[in-house]
Amino acid sequence: ICEQYRDEIANELWNLCQELLTIVKDVLTPNARNDAEQIAFYERMKGDFIRYEIEIASTNLRESLQNEANHCYLNAKELAESHLPAYHPVRVGIMLNYSVFCFNSKSKADNALKIAKQAYEEALADYDQLHNEEMRRDAHALMKSLQNNMKHFAKGPGSDVEEI
């Protein structure tokens, strides 16, 4: 019974991810026109939905889904790094989710730690330039998540991460 219920939930999740991916690809991204922030955000969303699919996919689908998600995250990362300051919540969020993808889906803790640490350090270096209070709160929360993940990725609390 448990296995049957797990399969039902996995199918529902798969279908929901497929529906959301279609909306992001066919509606949201084309309507973003040339807004790099929006397009980067949508690319990250695509990567996220594919990452959820990886968790429930059959073994023979995982590698292709990993490649697709990685491509989406790298597109988002490139756009964010080209058009957004390091402390921008969209850019920090992209790097946070990309590092989680590397850790969970690709089982590459060293790479995940490197991505998270670089994003954290770059955002921290420019953090004082952020004067919009709402963006500052969002960036701070995301940076705290990066900080927590770095400790997790490093397999313990002995991380040399500066507190914000």
From TrEMBL:
InterPro entries assigned to the protein according to its UniProt record, in alphabetical order: 14-3-3, 14-3-3_dom_sf, 14-3-3_domain
Top-level taxon in the UniProt lineage: Eukaryota
Transmembrane segments: none
Alphabetical UniProt keywords: Coiled coil
Coiled-coil ranges (or none): 106-133
Domain 14-3-3: 1-163
Pfam families referenced in this protein's UniProt entry, alphabetically: 14-3-3
Family membership noted in the UniProt record: Belongs to the 14-3-3 family.
Name of this chain's protein: 14-3-3 domain-containing protein
Organism: Adineta ricciae
